[in-house]
Amino acid sequence: MDTELATLVFGERTCSAGDLDSAARHVAGGLSSLGICEDDAVAVILRNDIPYFIIHEASHYLGFDVVPVNWHLKPAEISFILADCQAKAVIVHSDLLTRELAVVIGRVPVIVVTTPDEITECYNVTDGAGDLEPGFLDWSRWVEESPRCTASNKKFRPPLFYTSGSSGRPKAVLRKDVTPDIVARISERTTYAWGFEQTPLRSVMAGPLYHSAPNGYANMVLQSGGILVLAARFNAEGLLSLIERHKITHLHLVPTMFVRLLDLPDDIRGAYRLDSLVHVTHGAAPCPADVKRSMINWWGSVIYEYYAMTETGIITCCSSAEWLERPSTVGRPAPGVEIEIRGVEGNRRNAFEEGLICVKHEGSHCISYRNADSGSAGLQQNGFLVTGDIGYLDDEGYLYISSRQSDMVICGGVNIYPAEIEEVLIAMDDVIDCVVFGIPDAEFGEKLVAVIQKRGMLNGDAAAAHLKTRIADFKVPRVYEFVDRLPREDSGKIKKQLIREDYLQKYGY
Q1: Which helix (H) or strand (E) holds 219?
Q2: Please, which pLDDT band fits residue 130 given cuts at 50, 70 and 90?
Q3: Distances from the Cα of 288 to the Cαs of 236, 258, 264, 402, 442, in angstroms?
Q4: Average pLDDT over residues 474-502
């Protein structure tokens, strides 16, 4: 397979920049024919696949919002997102289009992408293309037959990502009044943090494209003129093979991927050439110090770290040398970013004093949440964005993250809010009350525990089965504890922090 002229590689398939642009123009024309206009939302329920990038490019021509949807979500969860963004069309892989999901989607146009062999083999699923409902559109035929958009100008149109909400409902991150100058400065900062000024640029993306960081990284590789090798999902030895085969220079990973790479036997770890790597960045979740040190010992000083949020973009970045000198730091503010540590009352803290991490840059005033006025109000504070993380700055401006203001759990780089899980559990007849929290996990960073005050014969299997019918599997706790009562404040509020601390002490964490 000749990949020298390719922009995008997926299995044995390749696409040049011209191929992507041509297909994107047809998608823009086809969506326009379906009545999609500027500012409309198009939901994308796809595993990692080439159409993700075609749709992204089409949005720049037509001006619609691409809404990446986590395909692990249950139909009821997807239904909320589709209703909240008022999706005017849905593009979905054939194996994901169950009858339950078809009911949730409703009467909007549905464009079905036949699940390719790279995915069916990886996930052991069937493509489902033979089960197309009447009226659904076949992606390949629809793209080929759609009129070609002839727009001469492209307008920056970031995807509309939904973040998990502390109240249990996801919120879409909006960016309004983002001028070309702001876009350019954000791009410069991201290029610096991800090492994209170093060329040639050849990368593998194994993270899910429905998440903002993998999506942004992958699209920026293409926009920077690099070659992107797409993986259906992460496989540790598979990644090493792709690095050697394609002479990969840049990677975006999360700590769970580091753990799985380090778990490989020594003979496999030593079987592949990795000397093409120049910049391997990680983010999304805290990385245990021993894991990071082991990766630096194995891959060398090519390991970099960044701290960011979907709402803010890049906040800090850190090289291997900086981290080795200051273990546990997430680095200094990226160019153009200002960080303040503030107390509960909003007062600024001094060096080494913990407080709420607040961030400001040229685009911070453009950020809000869709259909969530109260949440948007809490996001901004005196010109700064409030991250919700607790930490401190040292006397040289390096940031350290201590904890989170909310009880959010980060499992394998995915943000999970226990409130959503508790709401589903409490609806069970045999649950009197419950708390859900995270505990340390060697592979995923954190895992979920549910402590339940029950009546009757309820057990963990029954609780998990109930949850799996209503929320995505990755949100289902892996551990269940049952108690006669839950400790409460005088006000009646459950002492969640005390319960978690007692659990950690009981089991020796």
Answers
A1: helix 212-223
A2: low
A3: 18, 10, 18, 13, 9
A4: 84
